[in-house]
Amino acid sequence: MESEATELFKSKFALKNIPKRVFIFPITALILVILLPLFTHLNQSSSKFLFTTTVVETTSCNLFSGKWVPYQKQPYYNESCPFITEKQNCLLHGRPDTDFLKWRWKPNDCELPMFDAIQFFKLVKGKSMAFVGDSIGRNQMESLLCLLNSVAHPEDITTKYVSNIEDLTYFKWWFYADYNFTITMLWSPFLVKSSKSYIYNSSFYQPENLYLDEPDTAWTSRIENFDYVIFSGGQWFFRPFIFYENGSVVGCQKCNNSIELNFYGYKKAYQTALKTMTNLKRFKGLAFLVTHSPNHFENGAWNEGGGCNRTQPFIKDQEWEVHPYGLEILHQIQFEEFSIAKKVAGENGLRLGLIDITDAMLMRPDGHPNKYGHALEKNVSLINDCVHWCMPGPVDTINEIFLYLMRMV
Ligand SMILES: *[C@@H]1O[C@H](CO)[C@@H](O)[C@H](O)[C@H]1NC(C)=O
Ligand SMILES: *[C@@H]1O[C@H](CO)[C@@H](O)[C@H](O)[C@H]1NC(C)=O
Ligand SMILES: *[C@@H]1O[C@H](CO)[C@@H](O)[C@H](O)[C@H]1NC(C)=O
Ligand SMILES: *[C@@H]1O[C@H](CO)[C@@H](O)[C@H](O)[C@H]1NC(C)=O
Ligand SMILES: *[C@@H]1O[C@H](CO)[C@@H](O)[C@H](O)[C@H]1NC(C)=O
Ligand SMILES: *[C@@H]1O[C@H](CO)[C@@H](O)[C@H](O)[C@H]1NC(C)=O
Ligand SMILES: *[C@@H]1O[C@H](CO)[C@@H](O)[C@H](O)[C@H]1NC(C)=O
Hints:
CATH superfamily: SGNH hydrolase
Mean pLDDT: 84
CATH architecture: 3-Layer(aba) Sandwich
Number of strands: 15
Strand order of the largest sheet: 6-7-8-5-11-14-15
Distance between the termini: 47 Å
Number of helices: 11
CATH topology: Rossmann fold
Number of domains: 1
Helix content: 25-40%
Bound molecules: 2-acetamido-2-deoxy-beta-D-glucopyranose
Radius of gyration: 20 Å
CATH class: Alpha Beta
Shape: globular
Order of helices and strands: HEEHEEHEHEHEEEHEHEEEHEHEHH
């Protein structure tokens, strides 16, 4: 069981020039994905619950409330894009249906423009961008690299910045010489300091110490030099935790025979991260928070043979058929902490935006690798990946929204 989970969720960077350095995916994220077919908000439209706001003031349209509409043109790129992590390359692994590529996100009150790589480079020329978070953030970053691949190719300069095996495994620096533009993955799955027991023991059940009032230096020590910083994270908050504040145990999750989630840890981690970011002295960049990316296990949890074999997006009310446990609460916490941080950011002359993708991605049970996230010729019993997103796929929409918002501010 453990080794199977490890097998599925390990992954390497797509390019071969950093050999044999393995990503450990958030296997712990998947524990206890309980399916609640009829969630408490059944009678409300989900949009009503999730999206009561527009986010960056300069945006006149709420990009995050809308639906997926049919779109017949080819996706931006195909399975030959060299930046796709192998386990998200669904086409390469023989996913038979391609209808999941034939949808575009349509906000209710406006059009979301296509991603324009030339326009993107105009904005970022001479600048730098950091993704702070977990493998879902990395999924978004790699989508961005593929969206840019028709215009320019980056050089891997990771070894200029980090040298130990752990950092080389988890971090990444790409440099676009033509545009003097750097794009970076700063690995920080909890955003705050942790005991990193996941590095030494990939068991799903190994508890992690989380220091809720101490931001993770993986990003605090680095982001002040970046022009754009994109925070995300959430999937790793489902594992067993012991929470610390001010050096003392203040609580735990999935401990003492309890299987409950303790959302206190999630809230506090976001509070600490956003507070730290808005108060960094030298950071003058543009920051975004990407909201929780939902998973879509059906007919069982990740470790019970659950999967996600749908081939169509949900239409509005169908969303509630597949609904990850705790999603509303996670989203609400992010939203509240974002709103608080945004005020402080304003006072400190910082710009902070929300990329509120939860609702749009909730409608895409068809966008995950499922069993096409790993080599089928390997004789391993399958654990389906209903967490990450196929590339190409709906994850590219997150970057369409991202570029739109970058232009707005
Ligand atoms: C994939 O895209 C590349 C680059 O655009 C192109 O050269 C190649 O023919 C495409 N492959 C397939 C299978 O469509
Ligand atoms: C490249 O961009 C960096 C900032 O990201 C700047 O310090 C540097 O001077 C630029 N180099 C050139 C050659 O424009
Ligand atoms: C990893 O953690 C699990 C769960 O706590 C434990 O049962 C196992 O013995 C640990 N393995 C190693 C190698 O420490
Ligand atoms: C942290 O602990 C120290 C020593 O126990 C105490 O003096 C201090 O007030 C505590 N700080 C907070 C913020 O609780
Ligand atoms: C587990 O329960 C015991 C007894 O109630 C308590 O003392 C301990 O602090 C709990 N563990 C954690 C990590 O909260
Ligand atoms: C999807 O999975 C369900 C449950 O395992 C199964 O009943 C159904 O036949 C599958 N559909 C397809 C198209 O494979
Ligand atoms: C794969 O594993 C199954 C069960 O362990 C075994 O019966 C089968 O022969 C194996 N197939 C290959 C191609 O190794």
